[in-house]
Design goal:
Blueprint (H helix, E strand, L loop, with lengths): L3 E3 L23 H4 L4 E3 L1 E2 L5 E7 L5 E2 L2 E4 L2 E9 L8 E2 L4 E2 L8 E8 L3 E6 L9 E6 L1
The structure holds copper (II) ion.
């Protein structure tokens, strides 16, 4: 059963990089990280938007561009290969924690402002394992 870490974080303008040591560890850039795959979060029970992202042996998230609206968003990371991954949304300091082969775990945030929110695999950010949530 996937574990859910609840974080009621608010994306207030200007709250970026509030604390040293927990800033952006990577920024999504398709020009260096290969072609993007886009997925749209679906609104389910309780108005929570959900989407599943896979992490694979190529050190890529699929999709790596998530379209969502403001409100609650739950991203489930599923690791498909041998290599464990995590999914961390930098701005919210929110993470799935390490997800082993064949397992999945979720991270849930509440996004109050439209914008672009980067996420990374903290283990493979240097290999370009990054993505972005596009919130409208
Ligand atoms: Cu990874």
């Amino acid at each position: 059963m996937p574990s859910v870490r609840r974080l009621a974080a608010v994306a207030a303008a200007g709250a970026v990089l509030a604390s040293a040591g927990c800033g952006f560890v990577g920024q999504h850039d398709a020009s260096t990280h290969g072609p993007d795959t886009t997925g749209t979060a679906k609104t389910g029970a309780g108005g929570v938007q959900t989407i599943t992202v896979t992490g694979d042996e190529r050190m890529r998230f699929t999709p790596n561009v998530i379209k969502a609206h403001t409100g609650k968003l739950r991203i489930t990371l599923k690791t498909t290969g041998q290599t464990p991954h995590d999914l961390q949304i930098d701005k919210f300091h929110a993470t799935t924690g390490m997800v082993m082969k064949g397992r999945s775990a979720s991270v849930e945030v509440e996004i109050s402002a439209p914008g672009r929110y980067d996420f990374v695999c903290t283990y493979h950010v240097k290999q370009g394992m990054t993505g972005v949530i596009e919130v409208s």
